[in-house]
UniProtKB/TrEMBL annotation:
It comes from the Bacteria. This is Enoyl-CoA hydratase/isomerase family protein. Pfam families: ECH_1. PANTHER family: EG:BACN32G11.4 PROTEIN, ENOYL-COA HYDRATASE.
Length: 267
């Protein structure tokens, strides 16, 4: 893969956006590669946790506008519209897939997290950042809408509608400290330690029940769109009832009583 690097070990897949000369700006090829990897994870019982990071001094600088072939003045206007639409739609599809894959996804962040990169980072389940991290939501300064690749759906659910409006309307930049205070980050680690911190968190998740993690992610996502408490209660009841018939429940209870780490087998 030209725009991604993949590293698989011990149940953890690390996906690295690898266009460091462009601050990992997202072009069409990188988006297609991301979708291929994420679609494969939908059917991958061996990968239990995913870490998403960027190579070099930043996580992602957003959509690669300079790389848009339609910026050439001689390009047909209709052709450019189609290319832009496809690029933006595919970027949003990556956001959706990060939410939909059964594995918990941990973002390892440093430096600029801008534009489409913000949406991808917020689509992850957990976010570990170093102190250089800064979220950049520049859209209204550029003449664009902040409704970009899922941002207008994700941000209000993480920080509340009033804070989301302030950030988007004012095209704010959020440093790591403020992002942590708003609930956008799981933790801040030492400078340069974002990937190691994300892997430490991944190792912790590997000690948990695979069934429990996958179904918990599924239920948390369902809750974001649930029409009401009773619909969510019905979903929870089905998932929890099945869990009582798994070998992992007996193992988890025995390990708790024996004060040892459980050895879960169910996927």
């Amino acid at each position: 893969m030209s725009g991604l690097k993949l590293d698989r070990r011990d149940g953890v897949l690390t996906i690295t956006l690898s266009r460091p000369d462009r601050l990992n700006a997202v072009d069409g090829a990188l988006t297609e590669e991301m979708l291929d990897v994420l679609n494969g994870l939908m059917r991958d019982p061996e990968t239990r946790v995913v870490v998403l990071t960027g190579e070099g001094r930043g996580f992602c600088s957003g959509m690669d506008i300079q790389g848009d072939p339609g910026t050439d003045g001689d390009a047909a206007r209709e052709g450019r519209v189609q290319r832009l639409y496809r690029g933006i739609a595919n970027g949003g599809e990556v956001t959706a897939r990060l939410r939909e894959i059964p594995q918990p996804v941990i973002a390892a962040l440093r430096g600029p997290v801008a534009g489409m990169g913000v949406s991808w980072a917020l689509a992850c389940d957990l976010r570990v950042a170093d102190p250089t991290t800064r979220f950049v939501v520049p859209f209204t300064d550029l003449g664009l809408s902040a409704g970009d690749c899922g941002l207008s759906w994700l941000l209000p659910r993480l920080v509340g509608p009033a804070r989301a409006a302030e950030i988007c309307y004012r095209a704010q930049r959020l440093d790591a400290t403020r992002a942590l205070g708003l609930g956008l980050l799981t933790e801040i680690v030492e400078e340069g330690g974002d990937v190691a911190g994300a892997h430490a968190l991944a190792d912790e998740l590997l000690t948990k029940s695979p069934y429990g993690l996958r179904r918990t992610k599924e239920l948390l996502n369902m809750a974001l769109d649930a029409p009401g408490l009773r619909r969510q209660l019905a979903a929870e009841t089905g998932v929890q009832t099945l869990a009582f018939f798994s070998e992992d429940l007996a193992e988890g209870m025995a390990a708790t009583l024996q004060k040892r780490r459980p050895e879960f087998r169910n996927r």
